[in-house]
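Kindly inspect the following:
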Amino acid sequence: MSGTNQYTMQDPTDQYKQPDINKDQTQPEPGLDAKLEPHADHGEQSYKGLGRLKGRKALITGGDSGIGHAVALAFAREGADVALTYLPEEEVDAQKVVAEVEAVGQKALAVAGDITSEGFCHDLVDEVVDAFGSIDILVNNAGKQVYVENLEDLTSDQFQRTFATNVFAMFWITKAAVPHMRPGASIINTTSIQSYQPSPGLLDYASTKGAITSFTKSLAKMVAGKGIRVNAVAPGPIWTPLQPSHGQPPEKLEKFGESTPLGRAGQPAEVAPAYVFLASQESSYITAEVIGVTGGQHTP
């Protein structure tokens, strides 16, 4: 799978093969790339940078695995220094990303902690600014997704922790970061196809993604006068550790992504270019927008 050429014209339906997923594969939350079978493609062999983010400083929440990993790698290959957050139990994944960022000559900073703590979110921003001097790109990507089939089984604790991870942390980190962002800076939030086509069993997760979409559009208008753009990316079914760590029921894993018009799940490497575009000056007249990367399950 890795090594797929992202630059040669080809049929997107089989540019990446549908992952051969063992439906019995499970991981405890939050899930690790290191244990994912089959491994996801983050662009390790295929992504080639063009210097579009040269000299910029990026902070990516949940940058240790999945989409965050692919974005961190792409940003580094485009010339950005990268800070990432992760949970302590994700150390092995975080260190792999750090090594990949440093391998292309960029600075890497990995900060372990729980973004559901407002205090940690403020300390995180301070640590990144102390290390890098500014934050030019903020990617609010960390997310919690746990499938619960029946409403009566969805606990208040899970509902609150999903919102704390996906929405409150985004607010706390963004509020702390904006004073350190210069004109030309970019904020990119990770929403989801679930914001527009919510699935049964993902009530709390889909609700947070709807909130992120609205947050993005409102914040964009709030900070436009500061020269800061705010956009979002809405992925569809992307093969990441989020899925086998209770993000999907086991019976749905085997055919994960096959119902899309392109007929397969996406890879993190296919999502990262949207973040690069929104972070770069190439998207200078784009703010308050959402780019869907959904395999054809289009957003409105």
Q: What stands out?
A: The chain has eight helices and seven strands.
